[in-house]
Design goal:
alpha+beta; 3-stranded antiparallel β-sheet; about 15% helix
Length: about 260
Amino acid sequence: MTLPVPLNRDAHRVAPASSAAKVPQPKPQLRRYDVCRLSPDGTIAETRHVAPALPLFEDAFCAFSRGSLIETDAGLVAVEDLLPGDRIVTSDGKAEPLVWKGSTTLVPGRPGPQGRKLHLTRIMTDSFGIQRPISCLIAGPSARLLHTPGHLRSLAGGQQILSPVQACIDGMNVVETAPPTPVQLYHLCLATHAVIRVGGLDFETYHPGPNAGRMVSHAMRPVFLNLFPHVSQFCDFGALRHPRAGDGQIHAVVT
């Protein structure tokens, strides 16, 4: 049956609105984050959090894979075996206590929120010199090396910078990998930002960066900072130990 002209016109007007109203709104993707920290009284506290799978959150947990060997004053210790209070050797030869260890699980072969790819980086033995690294090392997507790749040297102005590990990929000694199975990753915090030896290479400890406060909404700030009980605001992370490359620029050193 043919609809009368007025009804036909009204049906066309209503149909788009009705179909648009039925489109489900995407829910924010969440991820589980595990935190192990040193309490003020010297005890170790473990907590589990469910928080948004946003880049700022994920980067705080995705630097080192299981089996990564961290240099401590008691020798090499696998990252999964480290406990808050263990003294980690920094690049200036000091041994500083670990105050925070975070971990999460992700599937590198599966795109994250908004299609973000969280691939791992495999660094072959002796890629950066003898025993650098001392054995094959798998770094997470947020790992940064104290190393200036050739294409960043003009940007660095002759100084050492902390570069994303992906910037070192050459397709031979340093390659990208994305296993289809879940991988547990870790990151570490000392009382201040530092460079530590991991598998014979110099990596940074966690720091959100000088512009972190601009990357998260006001409502998300307490959610993020709740993951780090040893700080109350972004400036409590202190200054960067070295300038840091990212997104084509060297971040200013926090003062």
